[in-house]
Amino acid sequence: MKASWDFRRSIASVRLLSELAAEHGVSLGTALEGSGIAADALEQPSTEVEARQELQVIRNVVRALPQIPDLGLIAGTRYHLTAYGIWGFALISSPTMRSAMNTALRYLDLTFAFARMSFEIEADELRLIVDDHEIPEDVRRFCVERDTAAVLTIQRELLGRPIALHSLQLRFARPAYADRFAPLFGVEPAFDAPRNAAGFTPDWLDQALPQANPITAQMCEEQCRRLLAERRARGGLAGRVRDRLLREPGHMPDMAQVAAEMHITTRTLRRKLIDEGTSFRALVDEVRETLSEELLRTARLSIEDIAERLGYAEASSFIHAFKRWKGVPPSAYR
Predict the structure, then answer these.
(1) Percent of the chain at pLDDT exceeding 70
(2) Antiparallel, parallel or unpaired: β 197-200 and 126-131
(3) What is the 8-class DSSP label of residue 207?
(4) Whole-Å CA distances, 334 to 86, 207, 250, 294, 325
(5) What residues have CB less than 8 Å from 125, skipping those under 6 apart?
(6) Which of 21-35, 125-139, 244-258 has the lowest mean pLDDT?
(7) Is the distance from CB of 51 to CB of 114 less than 8 angstroms?
(8) 89 φ, ψ to 5°?
(9) pLDDT of res. 203
(10) Residue 27: how many CB atoms within 10 A of its CB?
(11) Is the pLDDT of residue 33 over 60?
């Protein structure tokens, strides 16, 4: 099944990784080897690459620089807001950290993250959960450290001042470079934890952002919606299946029905979708996720009505699925 991180993204991250590697003597050819990315593509700001291509660049850079074990932490500090394009501008123009983080999670697929992220709030702590289970093991630690350090870099730039975490938990064993974490995060991490989680004090969410601009924020969010729709667009058989599912989302056909309508066997449909990097279940989820976002944003419907329109027998099933997609329940997203 297609991984949740497997979406097209800007080439800006590959360029940052290549520049970091070059500073340590790694050639551009070595950094890009096997990725299918041409060297001149790095100079084209509009170029998009597949996530798997960026993942190959990460592998190349990590393998080329074994003498720098904390490379993920170093890389994360290079991911400034300006690297993210319109997503970064949407965050900068948000009124508060709460609205900025909601926007960040809503359009996470416009970033370079490989970890899935979500928030949970308890009485004395807000936690950012960084789920790494879908990241290939050989680059998992690098990606978690890079993505977590990048989150902190973004927060510092949004507020215009350093931020110290309340707590930091990491699933990995304590590394030889453990002393590098506290200066960066402002807290000693707990290693060998059951999950990756960065903790903040809850009042941090209500801090006003110095560059807030409601008109700019609205314009940026609209552009984020359009860009995300473009990147989710599919061609080939997957595109045809997606179009079919969109016709009657309240009465979602099963795989056998769609295969029959396309005059192929279920086995052939499954194989061809795998060849295109997806699955029938992933396409059903994709359609429901896209429609749920639109309905929550524009329609004055209850959560129960939206669940029914998307073909769910119970609202609880929809709420569970939506939290899996976005990290927050539909009521919080709305």
Answers:
(1) 98
(2) antiparallel
(3) P
(4) 21, 21, 21, 10, 14
(5) 166, 167, 199, 200, 201, 202
(6) 244-258
(7) yes
(8) -65, -35
(9) 82
(10) 12
(11) yes
Beta bridge partners of 9: 49
Secondary structure in 3-state letters for 230-259: HHHCCCHHHHHHHHHHHHCHHHCCCHHHHH
Report how far residue 243's alpha carbon sits from residue 287's, in angstroms, rounded to the nearest whole number: 9
CA distances from 216 to 86, 283, 334 (A): 11, 33, 20
Token match 């509009």: residue?
46
Ranking 23-37, 263-277, 294-308, 311-325 by mean pLDDT, the lowest is 294-308
The total number of residues written for the chain in this structure: 334
Amino acid symbol at 193:
A
State the Cα–Cα distance between residues 178 and 174, nearest whole angstrom: 6
The residue whose two tokens read 């860009």 is 227
In one-letter notation, the amino acid at residue 221 is: E
Q: Model confidence over 49-61: pLDDT tens digits?
A: 989 999 999 999 9
Q: Where along the chain do its domains lie?
A: 1-68, 70-224, 234-333
| Domain 234-333 CATH assignment equals 1.10.10.60 | yes
pTM, full prediction: 0.76
- Please enumerate in sequence order all residues whose Cβ is within 8 A of that of 152, keeping only pairs 6 or more positions apart, or say none: 76, 163, 165, 184, 185, 198
Torsion of CA 28, 34, 38, 39, to 10 degrees: 0
Pick from 12, 17, 7: nearest CA to 74: 17
| Interatomic CA distance for residues 26 and 86, integer angstroms | 30
pLDDT above 60 for 104:
yes
- Per-residue pLDDT tens for 38-94? 999 998 888 889 899 999 999 999 999 999 999 999 999 999 999 999 999 999 999
Q: What is the DSSP string of 170-194?
A: -SSPPPTTGGGHHHHHSS--B-S-S
